[in-house]
Every structure is written in structure tokens, then in C-alpha cells.
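Researcher: Sequence of VOC family protein follows. Predict its structure.
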Amino acid sequence: MNEPAARLRSLRSVALRTPDARQAAEFYEHVWGLDTVESDGGAAWLRGTGQEHHILELREAERNALGKIAFSVGTPREVDEAARRLTAAGIALVAEPGRLDRLDQAGGGYGLRFADPENRLVELSAEVEAVVPGDACGREAAPRKLAHVVLNTVDIDAACEFYTTVLGMRISDWSEHQMAFLRCNTDHHVIAFNQAEWTSVNHVAYEMPSIDHFMRGIGRLRHQGVTPLWGPGRHGPGNNTFSYFADPAGLVCEYTSEVEQVEEDAWLCRVWRRVPELSDLWGTAGPPSKDVRSHMAGIPDAGRWWEK
Ligand SMILES: [Fe+2]
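Model: Prediction complete. C-alpha cells:
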């Protein structure tokens, strides 16, 4: 592929499949701090305080899985151009360019869908419905936007090759040959791949507007009996704060803040050693426990199996 299919502007949203989507929606609204924008039978769309119509979509399925990852592009024209380039590169479209409401997508917009090499569904969209931003810096400790999604992969090099070549993402840093952090804008990473035994979602991170909101969010969860699986702490790669929790389905969600901002032309990709002083800069979190590792490994996800 000579040119990437599109210029990604941001990570818009993630869709998760869980056996009890209603219970998950309750958690993300009443405990985690998101707001439900729309719900329809087994599906729910939740927003943060930022400008995205929704950042999380929840749908019912027999077992936990990644439903899709959605990126924004600038215009419907860019969606059409992406369709041409993907097709020319031999990547089959799962949904041709068109209005997304025909695919029961709340917030609508114009987009397309295709599958990555591990059968994860990827959506590119433009002209999604606008919403009035919430008060991000108010007293309420609510996530502003999606920060990143970490994906377990069986082939980290193939995954990086696809997302850099086809989607034009850049590798910001490596954590040895175990994790790769990819960006599509000034945020240090919006996607990270983790070399693993099987394909699955490792965790989804939500950005708090400040470190104070981050800590207050942890405090609110603590008062509701939800304690971190790992954290709080600050990671080396990305220099972001972290605190990991398990949602009612056992999927890992993270509060983060202060993600490093990349100056495109000045950034040099590094390889970080996996030592405690680099993965836990403050020395507050200690190494990840067996329990958090097993939640992050999740269960094998063949991708799009619910469509059959
Ligand atoms: Fe993370």
C-alpha cells in the first residue's frame, strides 16, 4: 500500500460485547461516570463530557468481546477515498461507505467498516451528530473522552504493520517487544498492542481532564466499594497516570490523565525496558498482580462471531 487509506483524526469510540449489557451500562453510568445518550433493547451508547456523541457502545452477546473500534476522519469524501484505497489493497469492506444509522448506529454519521488481520471490526466515520460538551473541569470526576484501547494480539509485528501501513498510525514507543504504542494525533497513543497468547481486548482507558479528577474518580469508586486492580501509578511510556478496575463483566477499564503530547516532527520512538521503575514511575503501584493480568488476558475473541 503506497498511501494509508485515511488520515485518522482521533479514536472516537469503542464497542464492547458482554453477556449482561444492561448491568454493564448501569456500571458505566452510575459508577464510572459516563452518561447514557441512547439505549435500545440490549444496546446502550454512553458519552463522556467531551464532544463525541458517544465513546462507549455496549451490546449483549454470549461472552465478552470487542464489538468494534471507531476512528474519526475529516469528511465523507475521505471515507469514500478510504473505501477505494482499502479495496485496492485487497482489504474487503464489511460495510460500504454510507449513513451509519442504517447499521443501527446511534449518532449516525457517514462511515465504512472493515476487519483487521485478527478480525477486529474497525469503523471510519465523519459527520457524526454533535453534542453539547459537558463541564469537563467541574467538580464531578467524569471521563472526558476515550484515551486508548489496548488490544491483545497473537502477532504484534503484523498488527503494527497493518495499523501503520493501512491506517497511517505511528509507533510512539515500544515496551521491549511486548507492547507497541500507536498514535494518530498528538496523544502519545490511542491504540496499543500487547503480544499475547490469543486475540482479545486487554483494557479500555478513559481520560480524566486533570490528575485531580483522576484521583477523585478513584475516590468515588472506592466509596462505592470498587477498588483498583492495579494503581494508582504513572506509566513510563506515555507518561500517563493509571488506575485499572474490572467492570461487572470482568473487562478491564482504566482511568488515566496527563497523557504525553507528541510533537510529530520532533518525536523519537523509544524502546522501554520492562522494569518496575519504568512501568511504575511513582513506585506506588508495584508490579501487576496475577489477578489483573488474567483480567487483561480475557478470553479468546475470534471477532465478529455474533454476526454469523
Ligand atoms: Fe492503559
